Amino acid sequence: MRSPFSAARLRRALPSGRRAVAAAVAVVLLAAVVVWAVWPDRPGFRTESALLTVASGPGGNEPVDLDTTLYLPSDAAADRKVPAVLLAHGFGGTKNSVRTDAEDLAARGYAVLTWTARGFGRSGGQIHLDSPDHEVRDAQRLLDWLAARPEIRTDGDGDPRVGVVGGSYGGALALLLAAQDQRVDAIVPMITWNDLSRSFLPESTGGEPTGGVFKSGWAGIFFGGGGSVGSGPAGISGSTAEAPEGAPAPGPPSPAPGQGPGTAPGAPTTGAIPDPSCGRFAPDVCAAYLRIAATGQADQAAVDLLRRSSPARVLDQIKAPTLLVQGAADTLFPLGEADANARGIAANGTPVRVAWFTGGHDGGAGPRSDSDRVKFLTAQWLDHYVAETAAAPGDTFTFSRIAGFDAMDRGLVATGYRTADYPGLNGESRQEVAVAGPAQPVANPPAGNPAAISSVPFAGSLSSLLSGVAGDIPGQHARFESEPLAEAVDVVGAPTVQIRAASASGEAVLFAKLYDVNPEGAATLPSGLIAPIRLTGLPTDINDAAPVTVTLPAIVHRIEGGHRLRLVLATSDQAYTTPVEPTVYQVAASGPVSLPTVAADPIPTEAVLWRWILAGLLTAIVLGLVVLVAVLRLRHRRQDTSVHPEYAGTPLAVRHLRKEYADGFVAVSEVDFEVHPGQVVGLLGPNGAGKTTTLRVLMGLTQPTAGEIYVFGHRLVPGSPVLSRIGALVEGPGFLPHLSGLENLRAYWRATGRPLADAHFDQALEIAGLGSSVHRKVRKYSHGMRQRLAIAQAMLGLPELLVLDEPTDGLDPPQIAEMRRVLQRYATDGRAVLVSSHLLAEVEQTCTHAVVVNKGRIVASGPVEEIVGDSPSVLFEVGDPTAARSVLDRLGGVRVLDDADGHLVVDTNGTARSEVVAELVRAGIAVDRVVPRRRLEDAFLALVGENSRGSGDR
């Protein structure tokens, strides 16, 4: 197979037909794997568990007990041999940590051997951090044992057909074992390291680990994870009770090449008694950790010890095809670790494939869609290179990015991408984004306290939740910020930036962070990833400082258009050890941030396929509805091209309108009225009388059961062109809250498709009376302001018929008075207004005509003064109302009524008005005016009854 790191690195360009076939094949393969993953009737398997004693150590003769479980397909036998997988667990785990994966692989037809690494669980020995003489040699003895099993397929004597899979601690073991033992046929190392010394002592300008910044948070977790004393299996022998009844127990391991027989299972583990202060760590590992933890820096001896357990030194010896899977949410072993391993292995001509996913030590397995992709890639790699039952998996580079939430299970969803060649951390191209800010002083706190919260083990994205507020301590960080990005940038790889620093001590420890800042100012630090920096030989003046290039951790992150980049240089972090002595540095950004990008194609998944199928069905339904509506409109237009001559000059004529719902409810039973030019008509009625239903039918929002509506002689149907001659405010205003009032009006008018000059914005805004507030975002408007804006929207274009439902809702008294004048002025030049309102006093003062509806029927219509009619009462305006009330109370049959205006309304009850006036004058009370008094409210109550509740209009 061609290495993706070959000198040519030419992008393959398949013809479109071949690309389609390749995509179809990929989809079929993926669907097959998903079906395999969920199919309930998988092939069965059996397990055999035992405590095996193997000989390892520097001389190959130190026995150690390993707690093992072998998973065998049910049909595996001497006459039906199966390929094997050695499945290693992560640091601090046991064989049970990988049980589910082992079961999946066994159900797929592999014999899977899991074991608890030395120093953990029930296994014996001490932890040497994947030492070639210890943990790696232990795994070699397990290969010997597999080769001796009659059910295991072999490539020769003592050479099992085997792949090695492991994550983190187990992933490094897979790399080291493949380098040390050429019997390994393929490996899948996941979320693991390249150089352990650089992993725990990183320095992002390229410095040596002896000058690196100690990753104390993760190191402490490692040391604590192997620190339990007395948890070993001393004295335990024989097979465990985990083997099913009747299953044969594993036999003794085969002798190592060139050595005598292995120690039989059950032999006691020998070795030095561990130092209680070190738990189950080997003394040299413990001593190295304690030295580093005490000083915050490593000596060369500690670095050499860590490199002993590092794949970096043996990558050129790996011949087994390698699938490297690394997580983007990983502050322990970030994406750069897999990149270094990939380049070192591929340089030797070994087939290598790289896959990044959204999980990692901080993100777990990632969303299900992402973990399914990793399982598919793993199965594909093993099936080809170990089982030899599948086609070559190819060497495309795949990665993924969180795409959002799944509406079904409310979990995160990741979208996978692929490209023909692995671009490394530099991407296929780079985009530079300038960041600005002056040189700034930053304080290093004494003993690193308080420290910023950014890169917290197992919670690297915590700073994203904190939005940078608690992530950076005031006075301990400097910020350099870009302008908003003109368009989105998909970052895939390691950003770089140049900085300058000065320090009175000549040294500085800094942490570079690259935030994504949205327009509201919320900052996101992708996966909590930061770049630790230790600089030496610094000047005291920032102007004398030379720029240094900082490589930030590789990320997969989309920076949306309108967002800003923020480069932060901080002096402390909870996850790292910083200088004890307090001091102040000067720091500056010395150039733009360089962002790597990759052009890639989305990977189809089962979920995506179903979404496309669902989208296709929905599209078909929508197209069907569009066709149906188009046909109906066409039919209506064909029927309604004529103009009814009787109503050609009438803005609105409603004839025998009826609206009955499917459940039998009758909202409007008989409504019949007209609105003529120059009229302001009030539509009145109690709640539930049918007013809103009438307006909804009028606006084409619902179809009537019977009856007709004509607008200037055109029969009104939904979608009718004559609706453009109506301006309306029905059922409340609706605006886009993030736009200003004026922007909302402009957007509404653009949607009508009519010329901008015909909108008459100035007149409408003058009517609204919003002043400069029209330029504010609508989300900041009060209810009354929204109402005024809605009225202005209805009046855009100065429509010939204006229909308003409760237009004064939310307006204060002066605004109501202004609205009264606006409507009266509007009903000129052939225009007309229909107003639905419950404010009877306003209708009486505003409207020329009224239509009173009760229980779905019209009970009165005509000019307002006719509906009010003759008055049975008289309004008296007098000089002394209190004295006048006392006089009138003594007159027999005369009743003084309450009036909100403070005047006297008198029911004379047949007594002559002249007699009432004479009585007041005799009492010395000045009478200024006597007029008949009847209000619209009186007439309304007489028509509908004080307790009328309508028909329940909906």
Automatic annotation (TrEMBL):
GO terms for molecular function: ATP binding; ATP hydrolysis activity; dipeptidyl-peptidase activity. Residues 236-246, 262-272 have a biased composition (Low complexity). It comes from the Bacteria. Residues 247-258 have a biased composition (Pro residues). Residues 233-276 are annotated as: Disordered. Keywords: ATP-binding, Hydrolase, Membrane, Nucleotide-binding, Transmembrane, Transmembrane helix, Transport. InterPro entries: AAA+_ATPase, AB_hydrolase_fold, ABC_transporter-like_ATP-bd, ABC_transporter-like_CS, Galactose-bd-like_sf, P-loop_NTPase, Xaa-Pro-like_dom, Xaa-Pro_dipept_C. Gene3D superfamilies: alpha/beta hydrolase, Galactose-binding domain-like, P-loop containing nucleotide triphosphate hydrolases. Residues 652-880 form the ABC transporter domain. Belongs to the ABC transporter superfamily. This is Alpha/beta fold hydrolase. It comes from Micromonospora zingiberis.
